Amino acid sequence: MKSHSFQALGARLREDLERHEDVDRPTDARTRRQLLARVGSEPGASRARRWRYGAVGVALVSAAAALVLWVAPVAQREPLGFWIEERTGHVDEWVTARDAEQSLRFSDGSSVVAGPHTTTRVMQITADGAHLTLERGHIDAHVVHRDASRWQVAAGPFVVHVTGTRFRVDWDPLTEKLAVRVSEGRVEVTGDGRPTQVLTAGSTLELSASSAGGVRRALPEPPRATDAVEPSAESGATTSVARDEEELIHPHKPAERKPGFRELSAAGHYKEALAAVEQQGFAASCESLDARDLLTLGSTARLAGSAARAQEAYLAARRRFPNSGEAGISAFSLGRLASDAGRASDAIGWFKRYLTEQPNGPLAREAAGRLIELLRQTGDAARAREAAESYLKWYPTGPHAALARSVLAGP
């Protein structure tokens, strides 16, 4: 084999390796040039010696190529990146869409859009997908299908498992209702002690958490606005004639009814809804509303930016309806308020109280996960480990499972 043959071989191999950015190209190219120059500068060298140089060159190139093939899969296993609108997102970050939707984009091409008045959280990112928690509202998701795709959306006691599809998840923590609609692909819904539900394109699933049904049945039906008192037999005819004559003389224009706080809150007008309650008297409202409306009032006040009023409503629900499901949800909500305000010790107490009162409640998994976060935050390593062990025992695949394992693996 002539020296120019080695040079041609080296050139072809050099061109091939230059396609891989992970190889140290300057060092590798310099080594090959020195080798080829040495081979080419000794025309009188023996064929066997030139063969040995060539073999060494091929071995070096093969080793470099093997390094590229070994490093490339490792790089591909890095966790996905994601962005919230135009900024880089971070694991455990809350995404709150108020009056406008918020978009999350992932590096594999998947996307999640949080609709208005939605709160969601990216709990975990892996090379194969992400685990999200939907606290309230709805998300529209497009997950790019890959062989190893693994995505989850946790909402209350339910988990939506996804490998690649377009779907929507709605979750209302007050009514504890879940709705899943699939437009492409396939998803599986588990949790709440129910059998796995499989949904394909065009399918819709609506579920209520098990404890919610009993709560709703225990609440009295509110009076209907259309209910009216029947006139007595004696005054009925006279009253009717007088009303008809008055209407002919002075036509009555019905007064425009202003929406109440429930309607304003449902429409996302939280500040207006809170103002309507303040106008009627906040303290009086807390004493007259039923348990579910007190939860709505607390949530409305929190979203309107008044943590003090939210706390007042939740405490009223616990005081007036101590053994109800709403009392338990109020404990969880009080824990969240304390956590948001930086009062970790108070938050720990409320989340523990919720788990004591409703160990199988729809928010038990989330409360257990938040306990791990707060105990680690306060530096209570021993109790954090206990909370992590308990969490993995009951929720081994839950959204806080990775955090629990890291706590147990720590010093």
Structure in words:
With 411 residues, the protein is an alpha+beta fold. It folds into three domains: 3-76; 82-216, Jelly Rolls; 260-409, Tetratricopeptide repeat domain (Serine Threonine Protein Phosphatase 5, Tetratricopeptide repeat, Alpha Horseshoe), CATH 1.25.40.10. It has helices at residues 3-17, 25-40, 47-76, 210-218, 236-249, 261-266, 270-280, 282-288, 291-303, 307-320, 325-340, 344-357, 364-377, 381-394, 401-409; strands spanning 82-84, 87-88, 94-97, 102-106, 111-114, 118-126, 129-143, 151-155, 158-172, 177-191, 194-200, 204-208. Strands 1, 2, 3, 4, 5, 6, 7, 8, 9, 10, 11 and 12 form a twelve-stranded mixed sheet that branches. The protein is globular and about 60 Å long. The two termini are 62 Å apart. 33% of the residues are buried. Mean pLDDT is 76; it is low at 16-29, 39-46, 68-75 and 211-238.
